[in-house]
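On clarity, I found the account of how folds are encoded harder to follow than it need be. What matters is that the chain and its backbone geometry are given together, residue for residue. I therefore recommend that a typical entry be quoted early in the introduction. An entry of this sort, consisting of the sequence and the corresponding backbone structure tokens, reads as follows:
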Amino acid sequence: MGICKRGLRILISGSGIAGSVFAYCLLRAYPDADITIVEQDPSLQLTGASVDIRSSAVDIIKWIGVEPTIRKQTTNEKGVQFVDANGKAVATLKASGRPDIQSIFVDPIIERVTSIFNESIDHFEQGDDGVLVTFAKSKEIKKYDLLIAADGVRSKIRAAMLNTSAEEHLLSEGIHVAYFTINTDLLQGGQLTKWYNTTKRPAIFLRPDPDSAGRTRGNLMVIITDRELQTRQKPDEAIRNGNESYMTLTEEHFHDAGWLAPEVLQGMRQSEDFYCSLFGRVRAPKLQDGRVVLLGDASYATPGIGTSLAIIGGYVLAGELLNHDGDINMALRGYEDVMLPHVNRMANSEGPMHYLNPQTWWGIRIRNANLGTVTGLKLGKMAMMIASALGITEKKAAMPDIYGHQRYSIEPPSSRTIHPYTIISSQPLLPRSCSLVLQLLF
């Protein structure tokens, strides 16, 4: 009997999108899979940055049937408006709303998995027939068939698997972000995200919240350039020390930032869903070892497309486990063969966030002038047309062709149908977000 059919015992460290997508896909095919999610926070963190779903992730959400639900979950944002200290618009980039997707994958599975909060993995030991995991607080030892590290950019499991430090394969972007919901509508009913910069590193983002009670989603970003490597240590340490430590540091950075900074900081203190994270890239040299596998940000964090990679990774890992029923080693190697070449093709240079968040007044003025020209002359559409004509495309994962097979079908075996899961990585794709426009023009 295959291991999936007898009930695969899986431990996922981390409750983010990657692990949720994996559990969602696997449980649809094998409802008896025994999945445990361990999360160091006291509850699920469902607040954060809305995302653009891109690349192969667009195809995946269609194949697994959640595209209509995701479209209903869009935040109704109409675009991004850059503002000055008086709230006056400098430039407006129009765009369609972006979805908040984690609850879409979590809600259907939350009652079907075992959730352990306020806990983490201390260490693990691999054997021929499983992984012995010791939990940090309870000191309880349990055995699993598979350990999935979805514990973020500073993954302890990655460090143990690769016999290195958690910082070894983390390429910092010098950007730290706080996410929280403000219980008042600071946008006064507006549907444009407001983007405000000042010097001394801070940037404020206020986004519309779809809740009818009238709320605002706040993102406070601190950008530290490569020339200030020593300065990066302070926010890094604050994140490691927990939310209170990072809130205090955020107040130091933003207390004199201007615009709506006082109201935003007050809302931060009153929020019930605050969390903070590092904007960084992870490039692990391998994604699996024995019965341990890296997933999502723990293995290939990439700002701007991290959520899409998490969706792709969760789907591919579930698909390979189903395709190699009973052979975990083959399944994990298949997952690595698909994902590692794909993520290694991604650019490793600094992203557009550094260009869009200047650190000096003259830099802000130049950026504003450029953005004003782009939007005033409607150059955005022209740039996208040029990009399409030049064949500038989003990279897709080279998943296996399954025409004529049941590979990656995530329906129960008794009701499976054949889905066209072929991904052609060389097909031109007209870019759908403004990020490519900004890269072409700056």
The longest helix spans residues 306-323. The radius of gyration is 22 Å.
